[in-house]
Known about the structure:
Chain A is an all-alpha fold. In chain A, 64% of the residues lie in helices and 0% in strands. Chain A has a domain at 3-56. Chain A is rod-shaped and about 75 Å long. The model of chain A has no long low-confidence stretch (mean pLDDT 84). Chain B is α+β, with helices and mostly antiparallel strands and 167 residues long. Helices cover 16% and strands 48% of the residues of chain B. Chain B: It is a single-pass type II membrane protein. Chain B: This is Signal peptidase complex subunit 3.
Amino acid sequence: MDWQGQKLAEQLMQLMLVAFAVVAFIAGYVLGSFQTMLLIYAAGVVLTSLITIPNWPFFNRHPLSWLDPSEAEKHPKPQPASSGPKKKASKKVN
Amino acid sequence: MHSFGYRANAFLTFAITILALICAMASLSDNFNSPSPTSQVQVLNINWFQKKPDGDDEVSLTLNISANLQSLFTWNTKQVFVFLAAEYETPKNSLNQVSLWDGIIPSKEHAQFWIHTTNKYRFIDQGSNLRGKNFNLTLHWHVMPKTGKMFADKIVMSGYRLPEAYR
């Protein structure tokens, strides 16, 4: 997933679970059936898990553009100078 | 939400927390129920009334217990436990409660009932105080929920009296 996808997955998960919980509670209360409430919520949990947990393609619509490996080799990583920082640290003010 | 495991964990935790919340709300909804139970008990017969060898009085009764406890049931009720207690005062104890009968009501349909029975549990005094004793018969109940808080209440029925002499 990309960053936008992760945010979408999290928001979708929270929204869907809360929505199913509200629907489940209202349905159970109105129908007078505790079992109905639990069944609707369980169905909502399963559905939400199928949509938000796996790495679906629609979560990767803003892919990060990683640098191509062949391009990276042309620009070697800068090496730290071996003597500079140590000398600076050991200088004392007289 | 970097990986499958991360998302699965966040999802499960949130789902279970929300489940706890809707169960709490279901329990809270029981407070909106204002029940109106009724009950009546007749003592049909005093079968026998003896003083036991150890000195304590014992009486056997035949009772007709009728009640309508249907208004106690809500969507969040698992069952109602009901029991009938004889309550009276003695010089030694300001309140004696002896359970004579109990039952479990599993659903609203069974909550309007009458039962013609001898006392299920023995009515034995701590001592020899029952001759001519005035006593109340109190129907107690516990509304046991599917989730959350249990409610208990009672109806006191007074005006019962035991015989003056053993028989």
